[in-house]
Write a structure and sequence with these properties.
Helix content: 25-40%
Number of domains: 1
CATH architecture: 3-Layer(aba) Sandwich
CATH topology: Rossmann fold
Oligomer: single chain
Order of helices and strands: HEEEEHEEEEH
Length: 208
Amino acid sequence: MMGNRTEWCCGITVLLAVLLAGCAGQSPRSNFYMLSAEAKPLTGVTGSCSSQAISIGPVSWPRYLDQPRIVTRVGANRLEENEFNRWGGSLEDGFVRAVIKNLSNLLHSELVVNYRRSEYFAPVYRVEIIVNQFDGQLGENVILDAKWSILSEPSGKFERVRTSTIQKDTSSPGYEALVNASSLAVAQLSEEMAAQLARVCAASVPSQ
């Protein structure tokens, strides 16, 4: 009788070990995403900014986005984090990199830099950005709402103050489509900034 009980206990132990090993082997794999620079050089934009250094930042970032997990909106008042779909680094840093790359392409300039590196340059203009919302619903759309300002350096004089509210539809359900739409939203924001920067730069060039 004792032997049967021991064998039964050993059998249960082995079964549990097999089940646990199976569960461990089926753990979901995390996916990592990054924003890309999607803006192309604008036709008709002069190179008036190409010789004038422009710094980007600081950027004021919503606290709910200050994390590696991708946040999506579920209904009007609820946000959801996903443990297995994450940003490949800081979303804020990726946002700034995409803006800088986009503006470099749009303005035909290699002098668009992160404000944290502005000590190596002598920026003529600085773009400050306040991001109020940057999220979306899977299979629906992404919304980027930001207030941004162009300031002269070193005086800090405001040249332009604008608010951009951008909505981009996702091409399909899933996180990859959400990130692609997010990149397109950043590209449109960059285009709006580039248009104003080109005007400000052109106005500062002495007429011949």
